[in-house]
């Protein structure tokens, strides 16, 4: 690599690392234990275990892979079991939202029939 290319590469790398560091350090961090869910893949039902210290008025939503909401649960308790008889085979996305609608956690699971 010649000298001008090496200088450009070094400047680009430093710029990338400084921007990345600033963007990550400016974001507030919320540490919530992960949602546990089982079995995965699921056939007839799936169970979600929510953290004990979850704030009130959270909403749990499940979306199919096309982005259509197929399930919603408000006022979450410690555990929720979702019957999958109306779910097609495939990948589903779940989201846990706070009372303002901000996504706290998300994940995915598979329905295998």
UniProtKB/TrEMBL annotation:
It comes from the Bacteria. Residues 38-104 form the Secretion system C-terminal sorting domain. It holds the Pfam family Por_Secre_tail. InterPro entries: Secre_tail. This is Secretion system C-terminal sorting domain-containing protein. It comes from Flavihumibacter solisilvae. The lineage of its organism: Bacteria, Pseudomonadati, Bacteroidota, Chitinophagia, Chitinophagales.
């Amino acid at each position: 690599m010649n000298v001008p290319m090496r200088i450009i590469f070094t400047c680009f790398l430093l710029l990338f690392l400084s921007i990345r560091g600033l963007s990550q350090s400016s974001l507030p961090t919320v540490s919530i234990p992960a949602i546990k869910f089982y079995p995965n893949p699921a056939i007839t039902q799936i169970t979600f275990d929510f953290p004990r210290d979850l704030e009130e008025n959270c909403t749990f939503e499940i979306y199919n892979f096309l982005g259509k909401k197929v399930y919603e649960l408000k006022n979450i308790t410690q555990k929720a079991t979702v019957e999958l008889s109306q779910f097609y085979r495939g990948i589903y996305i779940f989201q846990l939202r706070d009372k303002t609608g901000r996504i706290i956690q998300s994940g995915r699971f598979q329905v295998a029939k």
